[in-house]
Amino acid sequence: MMLPTEHNDPINARILAISEDKIEGFVREPFQETARRSGVAVDVVMARIAAMLRAGTIRRVRQTLLATNLAHGALVAWKVPDDKIDSAFNWMFQRDPFSGHVVLRSTDTVTAGSDYKLWTTVKVPHGFSLEQHCQLLAEKVGAERFRVMPAKGIFALGVGHVRRKMIEPGDKADHRAKMLPVQTVELSERDWDVLLALKRELSPEEIRPSPWRARAEEAGVSLDEFYRIAEELNGRKVIGRFSTFLEHLKPSAGGVRVTRFNALFHWAVPPGCEVEAGGEVGRHRILTHCYWREAGPEFKNVNIMAVAHGTDKLRLLDHKAAIDRHLLSSGIRVSYTNVFWGGRSEIKPSEISPKAYREWITSRARKVAVRS
Fold first, then answer.
1. Is the pTM above the cut of 0.85?
2. Cβ(11)–Cβ(4) under 8 Å?
3. Contact by Cβ (8 Å): 301, 149
4. pLDDT in tens, 217-263
5. Is residue 233 a contact partner of residue 239, using CB atoms and an 8 Å limit?
6. Which of 30, 61, 113, 29 has the alpha carbon at shortest distance from 297?
7. Which distant-in-sequence residues (6+ apart) come within 8 Å of 357 by Cβ?
8. Which of 31, 217, 294, 322 could lock onto 169 through a cystine, CB 3.0 to 4.6 A?
9. Using the 8-state DSSP alphabet, how is residue 14 labeled?
10. Calpha distance 334→356 (Å, rounded)
11. 290 neighbors 185 (Cβ within 8 angstroms)
């Protein structure tokens, strides 16, 4: 029997409301936990997730990491000539394993930074230079300038598109969001073996009980040892969530869209107010991401950024207006604000392995040597 695979099917929606971003940390039996919290039988949960993954409704199922603690990461805005923008987009997405989100963004009017149309997330393992990597990318794609904006603090990080469809403008948590600081965590070779096996996407065939058994074999450890290391890494704040990522950028096979618009909100608040302002912005439930990032004079010194998704542009602007009013009522002065709208987008997990980076650099050096 053919199972329903659209995200808005009632049973699928119940599963996705949990599985998108509510399974925090490392969980030994993530599908069983999804079943418990959604009220849907575990065999149904596994069958539906596998069916949605095969149909493309779900892009990927994987254990996420708090990669900001494992690699030097940043949001990077690129100023690229219009005649090179498509080729630059394609190169970042297809050829650079250390670029994750690749998005073309625009503003409704010509504003500060609106000539920076290509935006990417970039991660480079500790021990290597993020700035040098971006310089290499700039030379490769013909970028005229770039602005590197590492996260100094994280106030919101999740997905939950199905759950957020019901959120009203101004809906927020009872308390200010707590900032998660960015810190460096050093790992042993065995830690990396487990982590790399853990983070790889699950295939439809792996949507089953004890999904980590084969990954433990891959890492060369017993299942008990795999659990021990994964739980220790969870305690060291390098494990994110177990998530089912919806294909929210493109319509499903049946023509159904999860979202149509994604908005990158910018606010410039006085220096010294970033933690307070980020906490007040980050408590709004519509936001999937909220960071303290320093954007510099190119963007009128914006320092708080957040992302929201929706099917209606005006509705997203209503959410933005509600956040603006809340900041004003909280006594936080905003000297400048803006919205960058997402257009063409591709998303893939960034590679963060030091070994993979060394191999990539060596491969590039060989290609340069061959050409010369």
1. no
2. yes
3. no
4. 999 999 999 999 999 999 998 898 999 988 755 655 666 555 678 99
5. yes
6. 113
7. 98, 124, 125, 128, 351
8. 322
9. H
10. 42
11. no
Place of tokens 């490392």: 26
Structure token digits, residue 46: 């596994």
Q: Which two tokens stand for residue 245?
A: 């990522």
Residue 192 DSSP label: H
The CA-atom distances, in angstroms, between 259 and each of 36, 246, 308, 313, 357 are 27, 10, 10, 10, 34
The amino acid at 233: L
What are the residue ranges of helices labelled H in the chain? 10-19, 30-38, 42-55, 85-95, 130-141, 161-164, 189-199, 213-219, 223-235, 274-282, 313-329, 354-371
Q: What are the tens digits of pLDDT across the range 107-117?
A: 999 999 999 99
Alpha carbons 215 and 229: distance in angstroms, whole number: 13
Amino acid at 163: R
Q: How far apart are CA 316 and CA 322, in angstroms?
A: 10
Amino acid at 134: C
Tokens of 173: 């948590």
CA-to-CA separations, 332 to 28, 278, 304, in angstroms, rounded: 43, 10, 12
CA distance 80 to 44: 48
